[in-house]
Amino acid sequence: MMHLLADPETWVAIAFVILMGLFAYLGVHRMVLKALDHRADRIRDELAEAKRLKDEAAKVLADYKTRRASAEREAEEIVTSAKAEAERIAADAKAKMEDFVARRTKAAESKIALAEAQALADVRAAAAEAAVQAAATVLSQSVKGGLGDDLVAKGIAEVSRKLN
To answer: Main site of residence?
Structure first.
């Protein structure tokens, strides 16, 4: 047996057994198990939290996809509405412009016709005035005296009345 006590492995084994006994007496195994259980609980909680966060992220992603689709539809409706409104405004503007041009053309034609009529009346009046002056001159030179003056006055009045 002495021989066993001289062997260093024996002393290591004895120290190990004493250490394990001391650990058992002090309840180290319970502390280790408790720490392992605590770690397992923490890992389980972290896994549950990760699953919850994953589910929440999936819900948020689905919500954003729905919102995005809705926003795209709304934007498309706005663009369609804006195009229709622009076409309607363009058609209204074209109709108003055509109406304006037609009215301006008609007004210009009316002014031209009025100017033509006025010019014709002015020419007639000038011709009548010239004819009256010429007749007055001719009659006054050919007929002398009171009878001539009466005839000239009557003739001028009659010509003026007929020409105007």
So the answer is: membrane
The residue whose two tokens read 């995005």 is 68
Amino acid at 116: E
Give per-residue pLDDT as tens, 110-139: 999 999 999 998 888 888 788 777 777 776
Question: Into how many domains does the chain fold?
Answer: 1
Residue range of the domain that includes 81: 2-163
How open is the CA angle 99-104-108, to the nearest 5 degrees? 150
| Residue written as token pair 């001391």 | 22
Task: Classify residue 85 as exposed, middle or buried by CB count within 10 Å of its CB (0-12, 13-18, 19+).
Answer: exposed
Residue 27 backbone phi and psi in degrees, to 5 = 80, 30
Q: From the CB of residue 150, how many other CB atoms can be counted at a distance below 10 Å? A: 11
